[in-house]
Design brief:
8 helices, elongated
Length: 174
C-alpha cells in the first residue's frame, strides 16, 4: 500500500511537469528546478544517479558556459519525456510486481517475466542517463570536474558514490 501511495504521488506531481515540458516555450530555471525536485521521487528507479539537476542547480559554482547550459537544456528537451515516462513505468511495474507476488494464483514464471520486463525498462533508463553522462563528460573542463566533486560532496546521496568512485579510479591507475 505504501508503494501505491508513492506511485500516485509521483504521478500526481508529474502531470503538471509533463504539461510544462510539452509547451512550446523552453523551461525557465524556476520550472526546471520544480520539475527536477519531483524527479527525485523517481530517482530510485534506475542505477545511474541523475546528474543534470545537480549540475543545473550549481551552474554558477561550476562556471558553466552558455554553450554548456544550452547543450544541457537541449538534452533535457530531447530526453526529458522519455526519462520520466520510463521512470514512471518502472515504478508502476515494481508496484505491480509486489502486489502480484503476494497473490498465490500468480506463478513464479509470471513474476520472473515481470522482473525481466522491469530490468529491460531499467536498461532503457540507463541508456538515456548514459547519454547525459557522456554529454557532461565531453563538455566539462578539468576545473569543472573538480568543482563538481565539491558540489557533490554537499549531496548526501551522491557524496558517498563520489568517494567510492575515487577509490575505483585509484585502483585502475595502479
Amino acid at each position: 500500500m505504501k508503494y501505491l501511495g508513492i506511485l500516485f504521488a509521483a504521478l500526481f506531481f508529474l502531470s503538471p511537469a509533463q504539461a510544462m515540458h510539452n509547451s512550446d516555450h523552453p523551461l525557465s530555471p524556476k520550472d526546471w528546478k520544480e520539475i527536477m525536485e519531483k524527479v527525485v521521487l523517481l530517482e530510485g528507479s534506475g542505477l545511474l544517479p541523475t546528474l543534470l539537476p545537480v549540475i543545473m542547480r550549481n551552474r554558477d559554482t561550476l562556471q558553466l558556459t552558455d554553450d554548456q547550459i544550452n547543450a544541457f537544456r537541449a538534452w533535457r528537451k530531447a530526453n526529458y519525456t522519455n526519462v520520466i515516462d520510463t521512470m514512471s513505468e518502472i515504478l508502476e511495474k515494481k508496484v505491480e510486481f509486489r502486489v502480484e507476488a503476494l497473490s498465490p494464483s500468480v506463478s513464479g514464471e509470471h513474476l520472473i517475466a515481470l522482473q525481466a520486463e522491469i530490468q529491460g525498462l531499467q536498461q532503457q533508463l540507463l541508456k538515456l542517463k548514459l547519454s547525459c553522462r557522456e554529454l557532461v563528460i565531453s563538455t566539462f573542463t578539468e576545473e569543472q570536474w573538480e568543482n563538481f566533486a565539491f558540489v557533490v560532496s554537499d549531496n548526501p546521496k551522491l557524496s558517498s558514490l563520489l568517494s567510492q568512485a575515487g577509490a575505483i579510479d585509484s585502483e585502475h591507475v595502479h
